[in-house]
Amino acid sequence: MSDDCIFCSIVDGDIPARTVAETDDVLAFLDANPLARGHTLVIPKAHHEHVGDLPADLSGAVFDVVAELTPRVQAAVDADGANVGINDGAAAGQEVPHVHVHIVPRFEGDGGAPIHAVAGERPDLDDDELDAVAEAIRE
Ligand code: 5GP
Ligand code: ZN
């Protein structure tokens, strides 16, 4: 629990939210400023800022709810698909510092873009550079 965290306040019931699913460790509720009908956020109830901060059992619990809920969200709003993603860190657009998974329903012809559109200019990496990046991640 973090004192000045909006999502901790939702977990504690101090700020109202439209809850759509709940387990012992995970809460899912509608985004207050939806990007699309049915835009849903899935959060661990415990306060962690980054996805990499989550203990394995909790990240598993969060993803279980995401996997179960995504088709239900789509069905509820008659969507054709969904983008599922996390803004991790301010540079990636994270505004609420309590890790949350966005489920954004998508509709044919809605004018949106795939998740590939979130990054800036694409780097032009040769094979050696790709090898080096892969090695750095493996280390
Ligand atoms: P971020 O940019 O951190 O990935 O996304 C934060 C999301 O939380 C935004 O989509 C925003 O609309 C949503 N949000 C911010 N404050 C509240 C709130 O008090 N209640 C709910 N339900 N959603 C919120
Ligand atoms: Zn929090």
TrEMBL record:
Gene Ontology biological process: nucleotide metabolic process
Matches recorded under InterPro entries: Histidine_triad_CS, Histidine_triad_HIT, HIT-like, HIT-like_sf
Motif (Histidine triad motif): 98-102
Boundaries of every HIT domain copy: 6-113
One matching Pfam family: HIT
Entry GO MF terms: catalytic activity
Residues at the catalytic site: 100
This protein's name: Histidine triad (HIT) family protein
Organism of derivation: Halopenitus persicus
Lineage of producing organism: Archaea, Methanobacteriati, Methanobacteriota, Stenosarchaea group, Halobacteria
